[in-house]
Write a structure and sequence with these properties.
alpha+beta; two-stranded antiparallel sheet; 5 helices; 32% helix
């Protein structure tokens, strides 16, 4: 799925050189905007079509894993204001952020409703991307700050799913006043041996006491 202000399906070429030419072509090159809503909706449609194809072949939800890799170099710019500057519509950043989060929530709920194991990874590059937004929308977020990091992202993100023994959910019961620094993902991948390795940061005010309980 290639996306800017709009999104469309393209057939994946057989070589990296052909993929580069495809993405840089006049038809598919970036048009200056970013709409996560358009990207997620088009991706959801593609996923549903593939699941229907698999069901015809006799495959069920437990036979399929859904890995979604999102690459972005910017923040969502899908909602415009009524103002213009130098002939260009100005972006309503707050409304665009809410639109992206709403679309991301709907997409992840749609994936969960399939019954398949799912994994959503975002790889962002460039100084204009929004780290908080990327973390909110994904199970795993990477910032690519050098060319060779892309292969590491693919190996880490997709490999985590393909070598996983499954997924689990983790919930915390915290003492009064203690909070999580970051929102927990709905699911976390297990490694090939069924073990979980995930770091959590807590904000603990002075004088707080009590136990932390973890439900897996």
């Amino acid at each position: 799925i290639v996306y800017s202000d709009q999104a469309r399906k393209v057939r994946l070429p057989c070589s990296s050189a052909a993929l580069r030419d495809l993405l840089l072509s006049r038809e598919n090159s970036p048009q200056g905007g970013t709409s996560f809503k358009a990207a997620f909706e088009e991706t959801q449609e593609a996923v549903q079509q593939e699941l229907v194809r698999l069901s015809v072949l006799g495959a069920g939800a437990k036979d399929a894993d859904i890995a979604t890799l999102v690459f972005t170099d910017g923040e969502d710019t899908s909602v415009k204001t009524h103002s213009r500057r130098h002939g260009v519509d100005l972006v309503d950043r707050e409304a665009s952020l809410l639109s992206a989060r709403g679309a991301g929530d709907a997409f992840r709920q749609a994936l969960r409703s399939t019954g398949c194991t799912t994994y959503l990874c975002i790889a962002a590059f460039g100084a204009d991307h929004d780290p908080d937004q990327c973390q909110y929308l994904s199970d795993r977020y990477f910032y690519i700050n050098r060319g060779e990091a892309l292969s590491e992202v693919l190996a880490g993100g997709l490999g985590a799913l393909l070598t996983s023994a499954g997924q689990c959910s983790v919930r915390f019961q915290l003492p009064n006043g203690v909070t999580l620094e970051e929102k927990m993902p709905d699911t976390l991948p297990l490694d090939s041996e069924g073990c979980l390795d995930h770091h959590v940061w807590l904000r603990v005010p002075a004088g707080s006491q009590g136990c932390v309980s973890v439900d897996v």
